[in-house]
Amino acid sequence: MDFRFTDDQLAMRDVVRDFCNEEIAPKAAWRDETHSFEDDLIAKLGSLGLFGTYVPEAYGGSGQDYITYVMTVEELSRACGATGILVSAHHSLCVDPILHFGTEEQKHKYLPKLSSGEWIGCFSLTEPGSGSDAGAARCTAKETGEGWVINGTKNFVTNGREAHVIVLFAVTDPTSKHRMSAFIVEKDTPGCTLGKLETKLGIKASSTAELIFENCVVPHDALLGERGRGLNVALATLDGGRIGVAAQAVGISQAALDFAVDYANTRVQFNQPIGRFQAIQWKLADMATNLAAARTLMYRAAWLKQNKQPYGPEAAMAKLFASEMSNRVTDAAIQVYGGYGYCADYPAERLMRDARITELYEGTSEIQRLVIARKLTQEPAWAAR
Amino acid sequence: MDFELPEEVAAFRDTVRKFAAERIRPHSRQWDRDQTLPDELVTELGQLGLMGLLTPEEYGGSKHPEHGYLLNAVVMEELARQDGGVALLVAAHNGLCLSHLNLAGSEEQKKKYLPKLASGEWVGAWGLTEPASGSDAAALETRAVRDGDGWRLTGHKMFITNGARARVYVVMAKTEPEKGPKGISAFIVEREDEGFVVGAKEDKLGIRASDTVPLDLDNVYCGPEDLVGEYNKGYADALRVLERGRIGIGALSLGLARGCLEESIAYANGRIAFGKPIAAQQAIQFMLADMATELEASRLLVWDAARSLDLGEDARQKASIAKLFASEMATRAGLKAIQIHGGYGYTKDMPVERYMRDAKLCEIGEGSSEVQRILIARHLLEAK
Known about the structure:
The complex is a heterodimer of chains A (385) and B (384). Helix content of chain A is 52%, strand content 15%. Chain A is α+β, with helices and mostly antiparallel strands and 385 residues long. In chain A, strands 1-4-5-8 form a four-stranded mixed sheet. A four-stranded antiparallel sheet of chain A has the order 2-3-7-6, with helices on one face. A two-stranded antiparallel sheet of chain A has the order 9-10. The longest helix of chain A has 37 residues, at 230-266. The two termini of chain A are 16 Å apart. Chain B is α+β, with helices and mostly antiparallel strands and 384 residues long. Chain B contains eleven helices and ten strands. The chains are: A alpha+beta (385), B alpha+beta (384). Chains A and B meet through helix 7, helix 8, helix 9 and helix 11 of A and helix 7, helix 8, helix 9 and helix 11 of B.
């Protein structure tokens, strides 16, 4: 048992931190304001290998371990929550299912360009009428002589604007118990169009897109995993994605704590730094404590995944706790800042807006609780490990 | 990173879990009601090796000193899973009394006291708190006045865990009151010392199987061989002891919360309402999910802090964070468990109301939640 990072992981963390201090953090407010990423951001992230962190070198990746990847998402999110999810959604929701369910051909075709950042990936499961109830999706893929013909509308696709590669879920066998299948679709395929981009509360630079499929034909070998096993692909993928979202929440919260501590040390009221007041100390202590709890849950889940052990409920716990924690912690940061915290001149309000999404995407808090409770009630012995 | 318990720790956990289920569980309700613990149980705890977990093998202690604090954390959880009082007896003995002797005791003191303490033949206690000084521990008023080579101790100690049962006490007293915290020293007092009187047990909300007593010292003589650690360094050592003890209380909280969770799952699966087990209701599921999530986080925090100590790292911040989070978590778990059990949870036929009462102590003993928050905030603000 060892809770420490390895030397390699620490070295990578230094590299990512330096990069974040120079390139990511200074433009976080600008990204939020303009709802966009600067033109060269993706290239810079790609040059550091941050789009294929744990993809094996044989497929063009950086070949690092999964914990390093999660640590990377935490650090990026500490500097900018939107950049964090750009990298996290790309890895967790597109690279990961291709890595786990893809054929050799698919891996060789997609992973090198995804890992370099030449192509960005996204994941498209949600539809206007199916969110938590993902199995109720209506987008269809019909098999014909020329391939699969896809029709339907998807929404809330993170990275939809930047992505070239879509891991798409569509109904292939409407009457079967196994009605959905997964596909790898390239966005420039005729019949696939980028629809509305959402205007959001937070993570404004990150795109949240509608994707419209109108008789979009993809080849037979675009099928990812077995036909009819789409929901399994989706759920297994989301298990991993939850660790990434937890890392995003932890990173955002660490930033909130950093800023709040600095402010508490420098802001003078009643002739002393406000950090001397227990009212402020209590907030800081609770922020740090809850942050530590979330971080350890997150790395535990990451370690399980890295070691190929079952990790679904642990990832749900990490995501549930980290996301709710990040909302409390960023709210407390605003309170420490007082009126300034409510103003965009200071980062606290952006952090709070960014944190809010983590309770929603890749499974709401409510879905996480159902996942955890199902495990507890069906396997009581698991609770007594 | 590696989140797996070492094999020998996991094996020992299983042994203690079985012992606790067989030897503690059937009696916990009665011990709680009567505020007693049979001496034979302490003997058995000693035979299992639980009274010397943090003591090196050369003094009759653990065979796995490299995992001392982790092993201690795991044992605390397993004992508290059935009875918080039994766990606190072991926690105060190991985490406070023996920890202080291990940390600061002389070779002679270790040889004289540790083997009998580690075997469980003697029980140890630790005296810092006084009627008028709890969180503000340095304000203690017990005096140690020079008498030849030794000292005469006079004062009152309060809330002393194991005080009624102990043979050996490590007691903090002011050797040079004008120096404040830097004028406090630690002394070994034995039960039969002249002028030393053990008071009546407190009638407590929870942790009732564990005794809590006041101690009166009236001119109790301590020779130079009874000074523990350096002269006037007693308070500094006490703070380090508390850092270690905190991890034990955090771990004790884990056991209580796990008891709440396990009992609640069993009840929710078996209790039928509206034609189905209440476990099928989201209202119940959500409580279980929150209990389990917070418990998991607490356990990792406690283990992380314990591992840090085993590695010889500075674990103060980790220990405070673990203790604060785990103890408050356990009380929440207790309240939720009662809620899940409904009216039955409010009765003593079910153990969860006891776990809730036991948990409350963890927010108070060995540094209240408020003290932990002060320490955590200070660390954050000063690290900048």
